[in-house]
Amino acid sequence: MKTVESPHDMQRICGNLRLAGETIGLVPTMGAFHEGHLSLMRAARQACSQVAASLFVNPTQFGRGEDLTNYPRTFEQDAALAEQVGVDYLFAPTEGAMYPNGYETYVEVERLTKVLCGVARPIHFRGVTTIVTKLFNIVRPHKAFFGQKDAQQTVVIRKMVDDLNMDVEIVELPIVREPDGLAMSSRNQYLSPEEREEAVVLYRSLEEARRLIDGGERDAKRIISTIERVIRTASHAEVDYIEVVDSSTLQPLDALNGETLIALAVRIGSARLIDNIKIKV
Amino acid sequence: MKTVESPHDMQRICGNLRLAGETIGLVPTMGAFHEGHLSLMRAARQACSQVAASLFVNPTQFGRGEDLTNYPRTFEQDAALAEQVGVDYLFAPTEGAMYPNGYETYVEVERLTKVLCGVARPIHFRGVTTIVTKLFNIVRPHKAFFGQKDAQQTVVIRKMVDDLNMDVEIVELPIVREPDGLAMSSRNQYLSPEEREEAVVLYRSLEEARRLIDGGERDAKRIISTIERVIRTASHAEVDYIEVVDSSTLQPLDALNGETLIALAVRIGSARLIDNIKIKV
Predict the structure, then answer these.
(1) Which of B31, B148, B191, B219 qualifies as a cystine partner to B55, CB 3.0-4.6 A?
(2) Is A37 considered catalytic here?
(3) What average pLDDT does range A120-141 have in this prediction?
(4) Per-residue confidence at A114, pLDDT binned at 50, 70, 90?
(5) Please, are residues A191 and A268 in contact by the beta-carbon 8 Å criterion?
(6) Is the residue at A179 inside a domain?
(7) Could you tell me the pTM of the whole model?
């Protein structure tokens, strides 16, 4: 595995790979790798002849008062894990190289970013679409791999790719969970042991919703109140949102119909955790 | 010359050209070709093995009350001219193909678009950077050619290219002028014969500024008032702005220093005309 720091070098390397007929898979990450990230890299390894992973804690997707400074940074361990799963190029640029002084260009998806996580995090998705555009322009991947845990992110990125005619296939892979069901996240590290135990309510509440729906429930309000009841059993949990939306428009549904995304965000201690399930009825 | 309407077809064609080792030059236009456009196509023909021109009157760069509906559309004549100067692919998509229902993604350069033409046309450059991003993603040119008449546009596009790591070289070519000095523009067609005669004051005022500077003048205020005095000799002319700015930051200068852009916008009848000169002192 080759580690590349300069955007210009990475662009040149990937341009040559493309001209040589290679198929490039990109896994964009902010590091602190867990099995979720590694599953994306393994999928890229299967699907593409060359695998690039990017490791960059992107400042423009963090709002004021969010966890940019504390976000876990474990470069040596990440590099070793990436190499183990077969990454060919680890692109790890500096902040100054990605956002030099005077930087002022942003890519924005207007409506899909105003709902769900976009309410509490108004500049988050603008940062995501901007950095992903930059990474796509540097790496020029044939396929890019994202995890379903950030379900809204995938919807937003797919919309950007369609709207801006980007020539890349977006691949979404399932959420990877801890043995007790908690979705893997670099932010789980922020939880105290007690909070970590309680955090399983996110998964349990979604499983409870799934059971209701399997039993025939279609009413969004009743599903949401069931989820809320389960989450309230955790004394440190504070609901940010619980929503039942169409999985491609992200618009709220009164009754389940077609592919539905049930998504939630919950604050537990200093961590803001998200989870979701998709259900086709 | 091949005319291509579908963005998807154009992307496939250009992708294959790139893989085959061709060098692609792109001339983005809104049609109504004059010698200004043709000079860009000839330069692309010299510099690249394959030349694509796009012809699309881009609705997102027109504000409310601007001339989107009246903008000249002369497709047959444009196609003949493009073929004469050696364009290989004329990309002429429909509005519905470029901005399908539900379109909602925009690229924005924040500061450089707030000055000069950005004051009277607040959404103009967002439309320009968005359509140019789309065209770059469809055509994937090695070089793209723009005219100096839209000097701010080139500065904004260069900033976007740098900030978003777009792998394309931006080439700017000199303003092409009518025999009396008026900068060629599709919007000159809006002028009545009397207005057309008066419109030469834009050029004359800039030439007067050049003479002053050649004679040693460095004070921006005195240069601006000279320009204004010349333009006031035209009874139908109404100044939108006259500015003396740094040619890369577009920030106003008190005294000329380095490469200076002297830019102006003037309304004559129903036309809003722009012109500029660059002077290195």
Answers:
(1) B31
(2) yes
(3) 98
(4) very high
(5) yes
(6) no
(7) 0.98
